């Protein structure tokens, strides 16, 4: 599960290969820029902010790997009217993306009402903010009308691999309840449908098989992220360091499958899945000189496999904090992206509550931007994550240079 926690986010759009951000990234990973410069770059990413609003704390499933296991909220659940005031203020900020998720967004009628309202509010304002939804897919058939009428930019359905692996995590029969809705969405939404698969110990060895099944069901883009072990989630699903390497090796098998339609496989790695990002840097999928940036300011590498499959690895090697991605909980708490996974720490790490700021999200954001918690996250990044990333990056460059006579050029000044 990536720290964005807003799903596949509509995939990758655009391909920039001559951009100052690429030179800056090279300089960060080569150890050539200061902390102050890195923090300034992180703040600048606010132009591409995504806001994920968790609309409820209820679900029809009980998944072993679900991080949203909250015994009780820290305050009363936002009412429907309060939720609309929040989203109205979010639209005032004109973020790149607003994603509605939940423990299950289609559990009850709250989700459909908010989706419909948000769609109409966006249209009334005439703004370009993208709208997305994350769902387990089992209840989608009850809400097809609002899905079709809302003009969603993407719909993510979470799938945990082949039927046996999916049902192991989500309960017997979950796959068969999801599959007809997945096929319907593939037919009617086409390239706006995305599968969001969390790779863990139970399913990673059958990843190529799962991709074949999903392709047969009509899915055009399959996103893959990595399980993050928490004190209250299933320990038997935790990946070992060798497993991450095996996953990147297994991606070669996808290049041999028969295609019925275009297929993109998008692998997601970031600081919450640091072992996965380090494995990516070690793999032959990563070449420092081939990194691109998309229209939303996200870094990725892209490969076209022998059968035409487009394999993309999107990676986020910088802190996200509240500038690139932020989470708002059902009771209105504002959380930095790095703090969104462990729900047991929500009360400790919340940067403020929307109710305390008169439902003015810009005021809350300005308050949160000065919170000491953000400095703690950045401190941890410089102490723990960045040195490992820089070492892996240096090794990747060294390996590349062993096969190339071209000099390494640092173009960032």
Q: How would you summarize the topology of this molecule?
A:
Layout: H1 20-29, H2 35-44, E1 50-54, H3 80-92, E2 97-101, H4 110-125, E3 130-135, H5 144-149, E4 154-158, H6 163-170, H7 174-189, E5 193-199, H8 207-216, E6 221-226, H9 241-250, E7 264-270, H10 274-282, E8 292-293, E9 299-304, E10 310-316, E11 325-328, E12 334-336, H11 346-349, H12 361-368, H13 372-401
Explain how this protein is built.
The protein is globular, with a radius of gyration of 21 Å. It has a 12-stranded mixed β-sheet. Helix 3 links the parallel strand 1 and strand 2. The longest helix is centred in the last third of the chain and has 30 residues. The chain is built from 13 helices and 12 strands. By secondary structure, it is of the alpha/beta class.
Report the uncertain regions: 403-413
Q: Averaged pLDDT, please?
A: 93
* SS-derived structural category: alpha/beta
Count the helices. How many? 13
Q: What is the H/E order?
A: HHEHEHEHEHHEHEHEHEEEEEHHH
From the spread of the alpha carbons, the general shape counts as: globular
Distance between the termini: 35 Å
For the largest beta-sheet, the strand count, sense and barrel status come to: 12 strands, mixed
Helix content: 25-40%
Radius of gyration: 21 Å
């Amino acid at each position: 599960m990536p720290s964005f926690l807003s799903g596949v986010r509509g995939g990758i759009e655009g391909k920039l290969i001559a951009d100052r951000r690429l030179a800056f990234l090279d300089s960060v990973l080569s150890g050539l820029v200061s902390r102050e410069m890195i923090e300034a770059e992180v703040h600048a990413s606010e132009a591409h902010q995504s806001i994920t609003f968790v609309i409820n704390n209820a679900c029809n499933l009980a998944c072993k790997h679900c991080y949203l296991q909250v015994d009780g909220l820290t305050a009363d659940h936002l009412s429907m009217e309060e939720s609309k005031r929040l989203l109205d203020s979010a639209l005032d900020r004109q973020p790149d993306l607003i994603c509605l998720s939940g423990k299950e967004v289609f559990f009850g009628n709250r989700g459909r009402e908010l989706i419909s309202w948000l769609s109409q509010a966006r249209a009334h304002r005439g703004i370009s903010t993208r709208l997305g939804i994350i769902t387990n897919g089992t209840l989608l058939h009850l809400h097809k009308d609002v899905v079709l009428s809302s003009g969603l930019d993407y719909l993510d359905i979470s799938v945990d691999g082949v039927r046996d692996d999916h049902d192991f995590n989500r309960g017997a029969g979950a796959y068969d309840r999801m599959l007809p809705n997945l096929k319907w969405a593939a037919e009617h939404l086409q390239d706006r449908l995305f599968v969001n698969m969390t790779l863990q110990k139970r399913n990673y060895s059958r990843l190529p098989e799962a991709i074949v099944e999903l392709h047969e069901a009509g899915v055009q883009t399959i996103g893959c992220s990595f399980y993050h072990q928490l004190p209250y989630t299933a320990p038997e699903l935790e990946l070992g360091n060798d497993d991450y390497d095996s996953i990147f090796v297994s991606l070669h098998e996808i290049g041999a499958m028969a295609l019925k339609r275009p297929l993109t496989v998008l692998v997601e790695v970031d600081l919450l899945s640091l072992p996965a990002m380090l494995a990516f840097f070690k793999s032959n999928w990563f070449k420092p000189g081939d990194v691109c940036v998309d229209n939303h300011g996200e870094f990725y590498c892209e490969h076209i496999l022998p059968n035409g499959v487009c394999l993309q690895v999107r990676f986020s090697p910088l802190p996200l904090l509240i500038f690139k991605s932020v989470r708002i909980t059902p009771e209105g708490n504002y959380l930095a992206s790095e703090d969104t996974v462990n729900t047991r720490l929500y009360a400790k790490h919340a940067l403020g509550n929307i109710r305390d700021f008169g439902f003015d999200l810009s005021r809350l954001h300005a308050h949160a931007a000065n919170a000491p918690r953000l400095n703690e996250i950045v401190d941890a990044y410089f102490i723990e994550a960045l040195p490992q990333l820089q070492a892996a990056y240096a090794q990747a460059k060294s390996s590349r240079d062993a096969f190339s006579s071209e000099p390494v050029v640092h173009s960032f000044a």
